[in-house]
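Quick sanity check, ATP-binding protein:
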Amino acid sequence: MLNVNLKDKKLFGNEAGEDENLEILNSYYIDNSDFDDFFDADESLSIVSARKGMGKSALLSRLQYKLINDTEYKNPIVIRVKGNDLLGLGDFSGDDHSYLENYWKQIICKKIIVEIGDSIGFALTSDEMSMVELSEIEGLKSKNFIGGLISRLIGKLPALNMEVKGFQPSNLTELLKNYQNNHKNSRVWILIDDIDAKYTNTPDQQARVGSFFSAIRALSFTLNGLNIRASVRSDVWSCLKHLEDLDKLEQYVIEIVWTRRHMRDMLANKILSYIKRKHPSAEEANYKLGRDYNKLIDLVFESPIQWGGDDNAKMFDAISAFSNKRPRWMGQLGRMSGKKAKERSPHAKRITLDDIRFILEEFGKNRRDDLIKEHQHQFDELSNLIDSLRATQKEFNSIDLHKIIDKNFIRGRDASVIPPVDGKVYVEPKDLGTFLYKLGLISRIHEDRKTFTHFTDDPDLYNSSENSKGNIVWSIHLSYREFLNIH
């Protein structure tokens, strides 16, 4: 049987989807029918929403690969950009939604012009060349977007009356006309990632990010030949949905939800892709995902294991539990435990359950840090709230949980000094229990001790009458227990 290098971090793919080589990502990417609209050229606008580590950037990379390589897209102009890059093109200030929406329209058109300049070898970066007036954007509505934009550029060239970087305006005119002719039937696809990278839930940030979504909706449905794809964290989207106009965007939002089978296939396919790249002549390189997924996972992870009362369980049962349906968590778990396996024995051929258990404290610390980075803007004392669960118990009903929160976190403080919880004034410990459920720190555990109900499965469960009576058993997620000293 093939001996795989367990310590090679490439075995589990790059945890940052935007940093992964497009060819490699495409080789192991698992499609989801929920994403069909995201890839559809007839859909002018689509927004992917998910929590950190769920694969928003990877989905944008998957689309980027398809746009470049699939003939069905007919010579598209593809522009991939991060939110911070767009912010760097302008001076965003204030909280006037209408002003910011119009400014975003200008900035997005400016970025497209800059990219066109780069593609023909000329830096179209001066404000005179690249900033599109609102009246000019309005004038593009009845035309093909890229053709009209380039015509507008050509019309401004004579006013420059100077030579820049070896180009005379007449030479640049010829280059732009050639580009226009070569793309006269092309659609512009602009893929915008991490617009909310440094989001905090303040009026200025709400206006800045909220107006962005209003702007892309307006642009995508008024300009012929423009497709916009964007990503947003689901926690940020929940803070913005109440803003004027954004309720109209709900129909264009796709929430990433991975099933257990998706996660299993993702892991198996990453292993298969790695084997094909590193050991193309090996017999295992001929494995097929649909029939050999267990064999592929067993090449790297030891099975069977004792798990959940089953002496003959597959290792993926444990991997699935610790990963909480987040691809990034699964990749980190594999890399960390693979490194530990090689430290345990240079000749180790499989990652064991003990290898995973050994790294759980550090893994749990990483998960805690992820939660704080992702949700600090929703509750200022999140770190202290998480620490209030330290050395308590792994399972409890809501009544017991509220007692723990009251004893270890509230500590007799008046409700008025507790920060707002997810945008609402704190009233009672139940508010914090609901928040912990939303974060994924706790989930409902069922009587079989294997099945869990997460917030994405039933968002209203914590507020149910059944829970208020103490009839639901909650469990701190496995990923956090070792770090929180809960056994």
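Posting the structure with no commentary besides this: Residues 371 and 439 are 7 Å apart (CA to CA).
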